[in-house]
Write a structure and sequence with these properties.
The chain is α/β, with parallel strands linked by helices and about 280 residues long. It has ten helices and eleven strands. The strands form three sheets. Strands 1-11-8-7-5-6 form a six-stranded parallel sheet. Helix 6 crosses helix 7. The longest helix is centred in the N-terminal third of the chain and has 21 residues, at about 10-30. The structure holds NADPH dihydro-nicotinamide-adenine-dinucleotide phosphate. Homodimer. Belongs to the tetrahydrofolate dehydrogenase/cyclohydrolase family.
């Protein structure tokens, strides 16, 4: 293997220490950052994510509130709950764990969260602010990727970044954050013709596809930085990314593993956003 591993777990641990220090300072001033997580229904994966978020809050000394609603909860009831949390002074961040049941309009739910408590960074107001380079809550996974690069000393300015995937929560915003930092950005997706032609040109390649081991060595330029966002299970049920690690690590310059790569950064940036919201609440 030639690539240097970007250890997300270590970077996340360092960031969490910094966050914990800021949390104790805030608490000395009488403010405890509080995150409310709403879980609708009983999706197994969602429950695991929610438990991990609560655990992170507790470890960092933050207040965490879990609101569990039944699968058949009405849209109206869910919106009423969010409205209540929007007005709760002890809550600085509100997160509705996705996916939510089909009978509820996801867009409406996201837009009902106050942009000042939207620590997931999914509200159109925060997305617009991010696009125009204003103060915003940045979506956690893309933000985590930027922090990983910064902590590894990889500069983005002037680089050609190729993002495979254009979802609203990962692909699109990660490209935008790269552009904000002066990268030249190419987006690829399922309709892209000759994917390899594009990915081969990447100085920094971000894979956010959701297909196990999709990116092969033939897609990667020698020495490139490869960021693997994917969380998939392979045929043996083992956790793996969108990048064929064994192959690609032979030619990449830097690579993020799965697990211990982008994953730990996501919750860390959620914690950071909650802290930021609590700090900003003091001046509101
Ligand atoms: P989505 O399914 O929403 O998006 C996948 C994207 O990949 C789409 O834009 C799709 O294109 C594109 N795509 C699919 N097939 C191909 C193909 N053959 N060639 C090129 N592009 C293709 O996924 P997410 O963005 O939500 O997540 C991506 C991965 O990241 C998943 O594995 C997910 O589990 C993981 N993830 C990890 C997180 C973490 O914390 N590490 C957080 C969030 C997600 P099109 O738009 O044309 O359909």
């Amino acid at each position: 293997m030639t690539a240097e591993i970007i250890n997300g777990k270590e970077i996340a641990a360092k960031k969490r220490e910094e966050i914990a220090k800021e949390v104790s300072k805030l608490k000395e001033n009488g403010v405890t950052p509080g995150l409310a997580v709403i879980l609708v229904g009983n999706n197994h994966a969602s429950r695991t994510y929610v438990t991990n978020k609560q655990k992170a809050c507790q470890e960092l000394g933050m207040h965490s509130l879990l609101i569990e609603l039944p699968e058949e909860v009405s849209e109206e009831e869910l919106l009423a709950k969010i409205d209540e949390l929007n007005h709760d002074a002890e809550i600085h961040g509100i997160l509705v764990q996705l996916p939510i049941p089909k009978h509820i309009d996801e867009k409406k739910v996201i837009e009902s969260i106050s942009p000042s408590k939207d620590v997931d960074g999914f509200h159109p107001v925060n997305i617009g602010r991010m696009m125009t380079g204003q103060n915003a809550f940045l979506p956690c996974t893309p933000y985590g990727i930027m922090v990983m690069l910064e902590e590894t000393g990889i500069s983005v300015a002037g680089k050609h970044v190729v993002v495979v995937g254009r979802s609203n929560i990962v692909g699109k915003p990660v490209g935008q954050l790269m552009l904000n930092q002066h990268a030249t950005v190419t987006y690829c997706h399922s309709r892209t013709k000759d994917l390899k032609f594009h990915t081969k040109q990447a100085d920094i390649l971000v894979a956010a596809v959701g297909i196990a081991n999709f990116i092969k060595a033939e897609h990667v330029k020698e020495g490139a930085v490869v960021i693997d966002v994917g969380i998939n299970r392979n045929e043996e049920g083992k956790l793996c990314g969108d990048v064929d690690f064994a192959e690609v690590s032979e030619i990449a310059g830097f690579i993020t593993p799965v697990p211990k790569g982008v994953g730990p950064m996501t919750i860390t940036m959620l914690m950071y956003n909650t802290l930021k919201s609590a700090e900003e609440s003091i001046n509101r």
